[in-house]
Every structure is written in C-alpha cells, then in structure tokens.
Amino acid sequence: MIVPFAPGGGTDIIARLVAQELGHAWGHSVVVDNRGGGGGIIGTDLAVKSNPDGYSMMLCSLGLSYAPALYSKLPYDTEKDLLPISLAATQPFVYVVIPSVGVNSLKELIALAKAKPGEIRYGSGGSGGSSHLGTELLRMMTGIELVHVPYKGTGPALTAMLSGEILMQLIGISSVVPHMKSGRMRALAVSGARRSAAAPEVPTVAESGVPGYEFDVWYGMLFPAGVPRAIVSTVNAGINRAIKSPALAQRFAALGLEPAGSTPDEFVKMIRSEIVKWRKVVETAKIRVE
C-alpha cells in the first residue's frame, strides 16, 4: 500500500489502520510504503507505474483532485492512469497554534496576523498539499499575510511545530488530538462544515468569523490502471468490510475520522467532480505551485 506522504500524517495513519485490518481479513501482511515528496506526486507516480496485478495499491487524499490544477505538468494522467477502488474515510482539518502565540481563537489569530503582517510562520506537509491549499484559501478569504514553510510531509511539519520552528498549521485532526489534549497545541477552529466529534468544543472556521469557508479532506484507495475488474471488485469488498468493522470504526472515531466506503464507480464520479471543483477554486484564488 503506497502512501505518497511521509509517516505521521493523516494519510499515513489511515493507511496503517486499514492495512492492519485488511491483513487480518486476508491472512497476510499488507505493507505500507511511504513515498513522500512533491505534494504527493512522487508516490502517485510510483503507484501509476506499479505492476497492475492487484498487489500494489495507493491510499490517496483530496490532493489527488487538485494537483492537475496546481501543477502545469504531471508525470501521469489522474483520470486515465489510476483506477479508483473505494473511498475510505473523511476527516476535518483543524487550525492549531502553539501556546506561545498567545491567541485563543481564530478571530484573535486573524487580528494578530493583520497587526503583524508576514510575521506568522505556518507549516505544511509540502507545497501543494492539503494544509498548504487550505491555509491559502483562508489567507485569500481574510486578506492576512502569512509565511509558508513547507516540509517533506505532515510528520516533519508536526515535529517542527512542537519545537517552535513554526507557529501554526492546518492539519488533520487525527494527527493532533493527543497534542490538543496535552496542551502542547491549541485548537482554534475545524475546517469542515460541522464540528468534529473528536473535539466538539472547537468551532468551525465559518463560526469563527469566516463565512463560506469549508475544507474537508477525503481519503481513498486506487490501483494503477489495467488491474482486472474482478480484482477491483474483490479488493473493494475487502476495504468496505474493513472500514465498517466495529474495531476500526472505534479507532477512527477516537481520531476524528469518519468511515466512508463506496463502489468503484461512485469513487470515479467523485474524483471527476472534485477535479472540476478544485480547478475552479485554484484558478479563482490564483494559486500555483511549480
């Protein structure tokens, strides 16, 4: 199972949970192979070039759908070279700061950023990744100036934030629940349309004074194109059973993740519609990554 991001981020966490459950169901290990870099492009390209025999798959995230708009050239065709298997999960992201920033709400952070333009450093798992794009949307909608510091994956960005190297980050809630509970990070707002069951006390960005802001992230499994339909159907059934199992559902809930299975055709339609949606967003916001 190729994960096109470094260990420690939301995609990696979901991959390891699903891989473990699939391993139990199938009677042999499912190995997670982290291939981070390039906003997910390096790992995705590896997945595209894998042998289409059903033994290599990829767990992707929302970034798969906006990469075609962000990058002038990709080494693969997202719609032609990948074969969707199933949607796996969704999760809200959350804006967090280290306590030394001295703010207790997103409104206070926005006010601080306007008072000190260009002084607040925010981290991401890489240029063109979900945390980068989501924060850029916030920046565009509020008019604040922030300094982007990209890292080679969410894990390294999280480590940098814990050390005080960066001050804020938009990150999958599954990656920071322990740090929120310990007080090492302060949650300001969740990015989705509704509050997260993992942190119901944290308001949404829209509730925090930025109406219309909504940024949910989904995760799904794909094969390289060419895998026989019968294998796709078999693996789809296995994934849907795994993510709906009581054990995995409980672990997902504890991390703020929501199981979200689908048929292959449903996932194909979703990815296509997301590509159209994010192309409009990226073009309107004039975001570009080379």
Summarize the structure.
The chain has helices at 10-26, 41-48, 63-70, 78-81, 106-115, 130-142, 154-162, 173-182, 229-243, 246-254, 264-285, and strands at residues 2-3, 33-34, 58-61, 82-97, 121-124, 147-150, 168-172, 186-190, 216-224, 258-259.
What is the CATH class name of the largest domain?
Alpha Beta
Radius of gyration: 18 Å
User: Sheet with the most strands?
Assistant: 8 strands, mixed
Could you say what the CATH architecture of the largest domain is? 3-Layer(aba) Sandwich
In whole angstroms, the N-to-C terminal distance is 27 Å
Task: Indicate the CATH topology of the largest domain.
Answer: D-Maltodextrin-Binding Protein, domain 2
Q: pLDDT average, as an integer? A: 92
Tally of domains:
2
